[in-house]
Specification:
Layout: E1 19-21, E2 41-46, H1 61-67, E3 76-78, E4 84-86, E5 89-94, E6 100-105, H2 119-130, E7 145-152, E8 155-160, H3 167-171, E9 194-200, E10 204-209, E11 222-227, H4 233-239, E12 245-246, H5 256-259, E13 264-269, E14 274-279, H6 289-298, H7 301-309, H8 338-347, E15 355-361, H9 366-378, E16 383-389, H10 391-400, E17 406-411, H11 432-442, H12 447-463, E18 468-472, E19 475-480, E20 483-484, E21 501-502
Length: 504
């Protein structure tokens, strides 16, 4: 899970994906005709400013968007279409028992400070993710790491405590950082195609092409992320040429002005962001599966999606988006049915309904969704008290202390179904069979077996109404037709800028 907006923490994923040798290649979009300016500045409009520049210190969604793949790189890279490419790892081998991975690093890779990359930096970076105070999105996934050895400057040997089919995939989220770097909340020392230029808090963050980059040079000289607090502000900036592209459109009502204008292109890509009504499955009345099923059936997800996103977005009926290998359309499970909802409530002993507090983050679309849910549940006799809180309050109250009955939150990552196999996760879902399936899937020796098990998890969590998965966000990127090479999909909030070309 990674939580959206100031995107707080987390993420679990399981996958073994095709590995391809690459440096700075990426998925592309936009027009390609005409000549392009190799010294162009690309201006990017975003709603997601970093909290700080360290992704192990709660930097949030914004730091991933701006720095992941652009300033920092991993041993592997997650592409825009969900595959995993070798990056700083030139090659690797796996032992017969699946417990030891030996990575050979690329030669000639330098950090922005000029120091050459060594195996000690990889060891340091993994240990930074696993540190007690780490808020890394991959910390829990990488706790299978038992030992990290560095037999020479270009070799890293990692031994696991148990087989992990998603280990290489998870490494694509680990930034390799200079082990001697300091003050990483406000500065950087990565190996990527850009260096950090200037960060003016509340306004903009610039990245400059790194002349010493080991791979193909960035297609532009500079990118500037411009940050906006209001969803309509990036659109105005795009219309006045203050920005060239908006990374994730949050104002669908404004799209017609771009669709009808030949100077712009509206791209509808694939998102992995799910909006959840997450129950505390350890708090009454949501300890009762019939109550959770009743609440899910009482809410008209289709109507909510239409009211927030118009004709964009998707209903999925589970935690799994269509881009995950174990996707199955489960929208008919706990589908909208007021009569059924009332029947389930009566069977659970709540024929006259009940009341509960819904902790709601204070940024869109949560307040709108909360008001909608309150009105829907009132039709079956359930009273909802909306408690609006800040992201920081949400993290402490809900995520850390589990002090809630129900909440709204966005989960950004792909392949994060496996969190339902962890009874200690904030929503408290505890199904022993699901936990067993998730563990078996992670230790599977083939992707076919992994997929088979996680399809079972997907169906079981849906039937148990472990949460109510309200809808899957759209991923709408709006750009000037002068641009090409920008990412289309919203995989885990990354936005690779190095392939973006801008016409003269």
């Amino acid at each position: 899970m990674r939580l959206n907006k100031p995107a707080l923490y987390a993420a679990a994923t399981t996958a073994t994906l095709a590995l391809v040798l690459t440096a700075c290649g990426g998925s592309a979009a936009g027009g390609s005709g005409g000549t392009w300016d190799k010294n162009a500045t690309v201006n990017i409009g975003s709603l997601y400013e970093p909290q700080n520049l360290d992704n192990t210190a709660g930097g949030g969604q914004g730091v991933t968007e701006a720095l992941n793949g652009n300033v920092y790189e991993g041993l592997f890279r997650l592409t825009d279409d969900g595959k995993v490419d070798k990056l700083l790892a030139k090659d690797y081998t796996t032992s017969a028992d699946g417990l030891t991975y030996t990575f050979t690093l690329r030669s000639g890779v330098k950090f922005h400070s000029g120091r050459e990359l060594t195996s000690a930096d990889v060891k340091y970076s993994l240990e930074k993710v696993l540190a007690d105070d780490s808020q890394s999105a991959r910390k829990s996934n990488l706790e299978v790491v038992k030992d990290i050895a560095t037999p020479d400057a270009h070799t890293v040997k990692v031994t696991l405590s148990q087989r992990s089919i998603s280990f290489v995939y998870n490494l694509s989220y680990v930034w390799i950082i200079n082990s001697q770097a300091k003050n990483l909340k406000t500065s950087e020392d990565g190996t990527g195609p850009y260096t950090l230029g200037k960060w003016t808090r509340g306004s903009a963050l610039s990245l400059n092409r790194f002349a010493g980059y080991w791979g193909d040079a960035a297609a532009n000289k500079q990118v500037v992320f411009h940050y906006f607090k209001d969803a309509t502000a990036p659109n105005n900036a795009l219309l006045t040429n203050a920005v060239d592209v908006v990374t994730s459109e949050q104002s669908p009502d404004a799209l017609d002005q771009f669709k009808s204008n030949q100077s712009y292109k509206v791209n509808d890509g694939n998102s992995t962001t799910k909006l959840l009504l997450a129950f505390n499955d350890k708090a009454k009345p949501f300890t009762d599966v019939k109550v959770r099923q009743a609440v899910s059936a009482a809410i008209d997800d289709k109507k909510l999606l239409e009211s927030v996103w118009g004709g964009y977005g998707k209903l999925i009926g589970s935690m799994v988006p269509p881009t995950d290998p174990w996707y199955e359309d489960l929208t008919k499970v706990n589908a909208h049915d007021v009569t059924k909802a009332k029947k389930l409530l009566a069977e659970a002993g709540y024929a006259k309904g009940f009341s509960f507090t819904l902790d709601t983050p204070n940024y869109d679309p949560h307040p709108t969704a909360a008001t909608f849910i309150k009105a829907q549940l009132a039709k079956v006799g359930i009273t909802v008290r909306i408690n609006t809180i800040t992201p920081d309050e949400w993290y402490t109250k809900v995520y850390k202390n589990h002090d809630f009955t129900a909440t709204l939150q966005e989960h950004v990552n792909d392949r994060d179904l496996v969190w339902y196999g962890n009874p200690d996760f904030y929503w408290g879902y505890d199904n022993k069979q699901v936990t067993k399936w998730v563990a078996e899937a992670e230790e599977a020796t083939t992707t076919a077996r992994q997929t088979e098990l996680l399809k079972k998890v997907n169906r079981q969590t849906a039937e148990d109404a472990a949460s109510d998965w309200l809808y899957l966000y759209p991923q709408i990127v709006v750009a000037s037709t002068k641009l090409s090479g920008y990412p289309l999909n919203g995989l885990n909030s990354q936005f690779y800028a190095y392939d973006i070309k801008k016409k003269d």
